[in-house]
Amino acid sequence: MDTMRDRFIATTSRLLDEDPRVAVVLADISADGFSATRRAHPDRVVNVGIREQLLVGAGAGMALTGMRPVVHTFASFLVERPFEQVKLDFGHQGVGGVLVSAGASYDWPAGGFTHMAPGDVALLDTLEGWTVHVPGHPDEAEELLRHAVADGDERVYVRLSLQSNARAREVRGDGGFVTVREGRGGTVVAVGPMLDDVLDAVAGLDVTVLYAATVRPFDGAALRAAGHADVVLVEPYLAGTSTAAANDALADLPHRVLGLGVGQRELRRYGDMTEHLAAHGLDAASLRERIGAFLRQR
Description:
By secondary structure, the protein is an alpha/beta fold.
């Protein structure tokens, strides 16, 4: 199976052929994958080198001219390092674009903490009007990317990861959680690539599982419709990122929310992605223990 990043390169290359409004801005990352496309569209595939503030600023400048920019690099260099440009060049100027990241929270631990971005979605939560997609499979990544590029002049963030579920789920670019299974003892919301581990973790537990490949806007209506006072959020980025949104959705009801995700503590041994998942309590065995304890089911 190809990776989400492989699918991003192939899909965006086709979009460049199909739509003269689309442009791609890179900062060296994935530049090799776009080399053939760059020869075909030299004026719409731009590599600014390792200059991430310029990366975002150039994308916003293209949007000002009426183009639909797709801006891409690792998450830590796309959201965290040039955050001021994301805030001002896109937000303050009131233009749209599609930011597509790779690397996620710890896809490449050998790159060190500079290449880890568990706080990217929380940072975007401080800004107005960003749609955030977190696909759990390459097929979902393609569907959500195509929707994002076609989404008028909206501001959209697509968070890609090496972590992937075994099969794709039906996703809609306009958001909405999908009910995967129904139960009576609580609701578990699994975000993107966390779904398979969540389903393994709750096997035999009497719970509803909702799947979220689009997390902003947060689908509070689906959470309410599930009808449970106890809610567990399992997110592949900073723990608790969506806890406030879940509380807002259930504000007029007695409820409890447990937010599971990446901890704030920096892990200073590289390891691999699987070891980071276990260290943050996000592998299936750890999730089983934490979800079961919160919902009082064993």
